Amino acid sequence: MILIALGSNCSGAWGSPRATLERAVSEIAKGSGTRILRRSRYYETDGVGSGQPGVFVNSVVSIETHCGPETLLRRLKQIERTAGPRSARRWGPRTLDLDILDYRGRILGWPEKGRLNDAAIRSALVLPHPLLHERHFVLVPLIDAAPGWRHPVLHRTASELWSRMRHERKGRVINEV
């Protein structure tokens, strides 16, 4: 199972943020040998970071594909570019953001002790995603899309990870849309 996070907070070539996520899922499914296994509901969430990103719509999909993780990442970045512009500011507004959360339990780029530094987080591909366990806007839809999923490094389910941080406000889910 491969898990992909989707987020949008700006209208673009494909319409509203929700319409953009729906179109992104169909674009992902167009990949050779790719099929959507399950998708979460859409959630309106608070943005995170200093780039004043505003409110996002977020979702997670579970897929299968013949693509390796690097090829899949290139495909996702191409889909992002096709959807529309992205702020030059880190964590700023964006038409579409696609991230590989987990690729069949593969661990790539994590140090032995499971703690990441900024250099590791900024590298091209870290698996599982280096910040997914700290983000409401990822964990809540992840619980929908893959209820039995377990973090390959931290060995906790998405529900367990979310329960540890559910009272934090950063990136919180506002409502289902």
Textual characterization of the structure:
The protein has 177 residues and is of the alpha+beta class. It has one domain (2-176): 7,8-Dihydro-6-hydroxymethylpterin-pyrophosphokinase HPPK (Alpha-Beta Plaits, 2-Layer Sandwich). It is built from five helices and six strands, in the order βαβββαβαααβ. The chain has helices at residues 17-29, 69-83, 118-122, 136-145, 158-165; strands spanning 2-8, 35-39, 43-46, 55-64, 97-103, 173-176. Strands 1, 2, 3, 4, 5 and 6 form a six-stranded antiparallel β-sheet that branches. A hairpin with an 8-residue loop joins β3 (43-46) and β4 (55-64).
Describe, in short, the structure shown.
With 177 residues, the chain is of the alpha+beta class. Helix content is 29%, strand content 21%.
Keywords:
Alpha-Beta Plaits; six-stranded antiparallel β-sheet; 29% helix; 177 residues; alpha+beta
- How many runs of DSSP E, i.e. beta strands? 6
Radius of gyration: 15 Å
Mean pLDDT: 88
Distance between the termini: 26 Å
Biggest sheet record: 6 strands, antiparallel
Structurally, the number of domains stands at: 1
Uncertain regions spanning at least 5 consecutive residues: none
CATH architecture heading = 2-Layer Sandwich
- Report the β-strand fraction as a percent range: 15-25%
Quote the CATH topology: Alpha-Beta Plaits
Structural class: alpha+beta
Label the overall shape: globular
The helix-strand sequence is: EHEEEHEHHHE
Give the CATH H-level superfamily: 7,8-Dihydro-6-hydroxymethylpterin-pyrophosphokinase HPPK
Q: With helices defined by DSSP (H or I, 4 residues minimum), what is the helix count?
A: 5
Q: State the share of residues found in helices, binned by percent.
A: 25-40%
